[in-house]
Amino acid sequence: MYLPAAPSQEAGLAPAIRLSPRRRAVAGLLGIYLGAFGAHRFYLGYTAMGIVQIMAAILFAKETYGAIFLWGIVEGTLIVLGAQPFRTDAQGRLLR
């Protein structure tokens, strides 16, 4: 049995956009309020980066006088605004 060929871009069809079940607003708010602890990274599936952020917050919060918390605020704001590197989850799906 032969299956029909899959449609290609040459045929003029655009590739399907894969949407994430994750919401951009939720990820952004997690970043703004709990971003120093990597909550937004865990939510989007970036587990390793979330662990790095938790460790940085624990190890360097005193040394940086709390400035480490700006990291999460900046990333959360970029997620809410839909900045290019923050538009997708860990699987490359577009945030809703």
Q: Strand pairing plus helix content: what structural class?
A: mainly alpha
Alpha carbon gyration radius: 18 Å
Helix content: 40-55%
Write down how many β-strands occur, each being a DSSP E stretch of 2 or more residues: 0
Main sheet attributes: strand count, strand direction, barrel closure? none
Estimated share of beta-strand residues: under 5%
The overall number of domains is 1
**Cα shape:** elongated
- What is the helix tally? 4
Helix/strand order, N-terminal first:
HHHH
Write down the overall mean pLDDT: 88
Distance linking N and C termini: 39 Å
- List the uncertain runs: none
Determine the oligomeric state from the structure. Answer: single chain
Commentary on this structure:
- Keywords: Membrane, Transmembrane, Transmembrane helix.
- This is TM2 domain-containing protein.
- Its main location: membrane.
- It is a multi-pass membrane protein.
- With 96 residues, the chain is an all-alpha fold.
- It has helices at residues 24-34, 39-44, 47-60, 69-81.
- It has one domain (29-96).
- The protein has 4 helices and no strands.
- The termini are far apart.
- The model has no long low-confidence stretch (mean pLDDT 88).
